[in-house]
Specification:
Elements lengths: L5 H34 L7 H10 L1 H23 L6 H5 L1 H16 L1
Helix pairs in contact: 1-3, 1-5, 2-3
Keywords: Membrane, Transmembrane, Transmembrane helix
Protein name: DUF5658 family protein
Length: about 110
């Protein structure tokens, strides 16, 4: 198996870092927009968060869920950054980011 070109490896590592940072930012915006939407009387639709809401309340549930999502993202970055090739794991984050853009925009509207 051929070792990837170091230039491509650096580019792929930068793309992975960019996508993870973007997704982390979107997680924070989702947290803020969810709290904003709840303040306007809108309800949460994520069943996992709703289960947690029943046990600890709305704000702690959303904060806990988003903290867990950021921890999973950090673990993903840690694992994937050890791969020789990181292009496809990086590209796989594009639809996830797009979905969160839609969620955040919906929460703020």
């Amino acid at each position: 198996m051929k070792t990837p070109d170091p230039v491509f490896q650096r580019s792929e590592r930068r793309l992975l870092a960019f996508m993870c940072i973007l997704l982390a930012l979107l997680q924070v915006l989702d947290l803020h927009s969810s709290l904003h939407a709840a303040g306007e009387g809108r309800s949460e639709t994520n069943p996992l968060i709703l289960w947690l809401v029943a046990h600890v309340g709305f704000s702690p549930a959303v904060v806990a869920f988003k903290t867990a999502a950021l921890a999973v993202l950090a673990a993903y970055y840690h694992v994937v950054s050890g791969f020789n090739r990181m292009l496809w794991p990086s590209i796989s984050l594009i639809p996830v980011c797009a979905a969160y853009v839609a969620v955040v925009l919906n929460n703020y509207s």
